[in-house]
Amino acid sequence: MGLLGCQNEAGNGASAFPGAASGQLEITYPLDETLFPPDIAAPTFTWEDETEGVQRWQILVDFGAEQEMLRFSSAETSWRPSEEGWADVKQRSTADDARVAIVGIDAEGDPASSASIRIRTSTDPVGDSIYYREVPLPFISAVQDPSRIRWRFGSVDSVEQPPVVLEDLPVCGNCHSFSGDGSVLGMDVDYGNDKGGYAILPVSEDMVLNDEKIITWSDYKKDDGEATFGLLSQVSPDGRYVISTVKDRAVFVATPGIEFSQLFFPIKGILVVYDTVTDSYTALPGADDPEFVQSNPTWSPDGKWVVFARTKVYQKESIANASSILLDENDVPEFIEDKEPFKFDLYRVPFNEGRGGKAEPIEGASHNGMSNFFAKFSPDGKWIVFTQAENYMLLMPDSELYIIPAEGGEARRLRANTSRMNSWHSFSSNGKWLVFSSKANTPYTQLFLTHIDDEGRSTPPVVLDRFTGTYGAANIPEFVPLPADAIAKIQEQFLDAYSFLRAGMANERTGNYPAAVKAYDRGLAVEPANVELLNAKGFALFQQGESEQAVASLQKAIEVDPRHWKSHNNLALASVDLGEFEIAEAHYRESLALEPQPAIYNDLGFVLERQGLPFEALEMYRKSLELDPESSAAHFNLASALARSGEFAEAEQHFRAVLENDPGTQAYTGLGIVLWQQGQQDEGIASMRAALEADPENATAHDQLGKMLLQKGEIEEGREELARAKALNPSLGEVQ
After folding, report:
1. Are the C-beta atoms of 193 and 214 separated by less than 8 Å?
2. CATH code for the domain in which residue 97 is found
3. Cis peptide before 81 (omega within 30 of 0)
4. Within the chain, which residues score under 50 in pLDDT?
5. 603 and 717, same domain (yes or no)
């Protein structure tokens, strides 16, 4: 950090303390009037100095005329005091401000620049520890490999990054919350291929996460067949209840960049309460209207009120019957490309032991033209701090923290807001400190503190720089009224082979086959004879070009279950890639005997053609079309085979069938050839030109068009087309 040590060059030389800022020096952290908690570890002071000739800096800390000034030095534009020196600063700055000056020293030892700020130490300790999630960026990497997400637990006095207490989950784990006294932890976990999985654990030093502690939000009205995620769940202050958004649908777009690498917000959902005593799920009246999105709930400290974000359900015909509960950029491009507005208001409803009541908008956090979300009560129930942005929810670059009286009123912007993204906040149990997340300094989200006084005023932000590691974003921080050693380890014991299978499949959907294979291998370590894992691993290996390894895994799958048709089919695919067509044929036929799928008939036809069996291939293509008359692949393969057999009229029919549903270069090219062969020269040339409109760089289409034009006597254009073909593919473009 550029620290030369806490060299205390003590003296009472108050006269040496610089006055107004001079030169080109600016202190970037801390900000003027920053208030530090008494239990925080030493911060890093940073500054910028463009003053010519400055070689080193003095740090002067002045406590007034009656106290001795402290002097330190640094060779770089940052300085972190020793913990002993920092303890001295904190102790001496409790009653009055300490004035900190940074003085730039030139080669002659003379002051060349300076700037100063005031800091103070609060009498209010933080007291609590912080439980938070550490996520690799871009976020898509965490989606592809959830095992890289970790959870840490530690206190603000830590001189190192807080220890990891939970890691290496192969399934996604998300939002967490604690009961008011810290005795109960709830956390989203995608257990057993169920996105609605949720863990509820009693808190202890060594915690065990097993299937006995898992519930699922999917159990709420599961007979309706409507999938659910269970978003943004919150444990009640007494630990008895959990409230969550269910029957939900959300926009979820993961992007490659690291700064803001996801867009995630619900567009549908109601609030449902789970009762740990009765093991029952009940919709909360007043927050269960299917015409509205009701999400992001929070409890009042006494458990009597629920505050939540609400807006009208987003309705769009094209997504009404979408199978997924997560919508991506292909489903809702209007939110990505056009930034279509979608805003939330804060409402509150009485809990009434689950009976609910009438939902009412909260003044100052509703109907203000902005999106309002993430409400959090102060422990005394006096204040609500919430997040406001122009649109949407979660990780908005423009999001800022506002405070209102709990009953509603004028919203005031917190002084602690940084320049970029302020969210994910939590009150300490004494109500004096707020922790929140921000990307002000780095794309990797950091945690910050601010003091909240009795009037709801906040102080400049204090960065918890030790809480953020390399290449990991610190988010979802929550104060827990427990010492830092209260949670040492959370061990998972619920993960079965299927959990690893699901993790691998999630990676496959994003094209990350190496991560998929890794997940399948972890599952096979748990259950070596799991046929689904063996098959999935084989297919993933095939997809990344490792067909020999794929064959080995698929053969094991068939040894485990000779009737597993998917393994036979995938083994055939890998065998084709290796040129072993007879083996491929045998496994395609075995797969068809078990599961007569149209695509398999089509693939078998291809293999038979490669073995010089055109008539048998034609039969397979026809069987494929009997089962799926709309299959473009089967129509194309049948048309091509018929053309090679000289049956041009029937081939024409099937090429045209392809073009009805899937117009493309290959189908236009094939149609052009069979039309020409039937004496329809102009039509054949027109089809070939259509092929080139679809793909101007297609060498085969240029070659065929050139030959047609030459035969028709259009010599100059014909030669031009052949030249284009040869330029694209040197093996083409020659007149036979």
Report:
1. no
2. 2.60.40.10
3. no
4. 1-15, 20
5. yes
Residue in 130, 132, 137 with CA at minimum distance from that of residue 472: 137
SS3 of 519, please?
A: helix
pTM, full prediction: 0.73
DSSP for residue 719: H
Clarify whether residues 597 and 705 are in a common domain.
yes
Q: How many structural domains comprise the chain?
A: 3
d(CA 717, CA 706) in angstroms, rounded, equals 7
Q: What is the distance between the terminal CA atoms of the chain, rounded to a whole angstrom?
A: 75
The CATH number linked to 593 is: 1.25.40.10
514 part of a folded domain:
no
| CATH number of the domain residue 391 falls in | 2.120.10.30
Rounded Cα gap, residues 100 and 60, in angstroms? 6
**pLDDT tens digits for range 295-353:** 999 999 999 999 999 999 998 877 877 767 888 888 888 888 888 899 999 999 999 99
Residue 504 lies in a domain: no
Phi, psi (deg, nearest 5) at residue 330 = -75, -30
Residues 6+ apart with CB under 8 A from 671: 652, 655, 656, 659, 687
Containing structural domain, residue 634: 529-728
Same domain, residue pair 110 and 137: no
CA–CA dist 571, 586 (Å, integer):
10
- Asked if 422 and 401 count as a contact pair (C-beta separation under 8 A), the reply is yes
